[in-house]
Amino acid sequence: MKFEDIELVNNEANHNFELTIDSQRSFIDYQVRGDKVYLIHTEVPETLQGRGVAEALVEKALTYIENKGQKIVPLCAYVQIILKKHPEWNRVVA
């Protein structure tokens, strides 16, 4: 599955970064404090799991945060896994 064309939505009202695929919403809960974005929890519907959705969501969120000049605090276990798998993203860790 290709995710390049699916736009990341920053739902500031809900403190979520969201991807909608097949009419289903995947999201990362976050909180912003100053220039830091605390990534709290990643959730993907069961029917989308195992298709790379969560990884695409995290990478899109990291790109978005980096482009805004912010840093992340990775509280989410899944985000921590992605950072281990892709150490180049450590550049955005606070």
Secondary structure elements and pairings:
Blueprint: E1 9-11, E2 16-21, E3 24-33, E4 36-43, H1 53-67, E5 71-74, H2 77-85
Parallel strand pairs: 4-5
Antiparallel strand pairs: 1-2, 2-3, 3-4
What does this structure look like?
With 94 residues, the protein is of the alpha+beta class. The protein is 26% helix and 33% strand. The protein contains 2 helices and 5 strands. It has a 5-stranded mixed β-sheet. The model has no long low-confidence stretch (mean pLDDT 96).
Keywords:
alpha+beta, Aminopeptidase, 2 helices, 5 strands
* Number of β-strand runs: 5
Radius of gyration: 12 Å
Ranges with pLDDT <50 over ≥5 residues?
none
CATH superfamily: Gcn5-related N-acetyltransferase (GNAT)
Secondary-structure element sequence?
A: EEEEHEH
Highest CATH level, the class: Alpha Beta
Helical percentage: 25-40%
Distance between the first and last residues' Cα:
31 Å
| Quaternary organization | single chain
Structural class: alpha+beta
Global shape? globular
Q: Can you summarize the main beta sheet? A: 5 strands, mixed
CATH architecture tag:
3-Layer(aba) Sandwich
Strand neighbour order, sheet with most strands:
1-2-3-4-5
